[in-house]
Design a protein that fits this description.
This protein has about 160 residues and is of the alpha/beta class. It is about 30% helix and about 20% strand. The strands form two sheets. It has a five-stranded parallel sheet, with helices on both faces. Strands 6-7 form a two-stranded antiparallel ribbon. About 25% of the residues are buried.
């Protein structure tokens, strides 16, 4: 029985890949994915075997990955960001179930673009009961206009944090 991983490799840089994603990709027999993502990974893992399909061929890509894993191979289906958030994990599970494939499937979470962007000092935001704010300690914060609290109204859909 082969193994199929749905791997989120983050927003694109090697430095944003999780240790688990790197380990799975390094140890996979075959890396499958959208052509652009495969091309991005080739520079980090040039010795690997890759199988890619273009945009709109997600179902074909997943069927191919399930079939390769059913042959006994270890397959890493890669998605940018996280494999479960607008990634391939759900489709892989559906197709494996439809095919009644005898494969083990594991999802490997990745860093989303939103999480990576939040690490940029000027983009960092913290939730407060009265709205979002940019920390005053952020670089170049003095050149930014002051952030004013957003008043909460009775129609606000943002729940107040527990305890205050």
């Amino acid at each position: 029985m082969g193994k199929l991983y749905a791997v989120g490799f983050g927003p694109g840089g090697y430095e944003h890949m999780t240790a688990k994603a790197i380990d799975v990709i390094k140890n996979a027999d075959i890396i499958t994915g959208y052509t652009t993502y495969v091309e991005m990974l080739k520079k980090f893992f040039p010795e690997k075997e890759y199988v890619a399909t273009p945009m709109t061929k997600e179902m074909d890509r997943c069927r191919m990955a399930v079939d390769l894993a059913a042959e006994g191979k270890t397959v890493a289906m890669v998605s940018s960001g996280d494999s479960g958030i607008y990634g391939m994990a759900g489709i892989l599970l559906e197709i494996a179930n439809e095919k009644k494939a005898d494969v083990e499937i594991e999802t490997v979470p990745g860093v989303t673009a939103a999480s990576a962007a939040a690490s940029i000092p000027r983009a960092t935001k913290s939730w407060k009961p009265w709205g979002l704010s940019i920390p005053a300690s952020a670089p170049a914060a003095s050149s930014m206009p002051p952030v004013r609290p957003i008043p909460r109204t009775a129609t606000s859909s943002i729940p107040a944090p527990a305890g205050g």
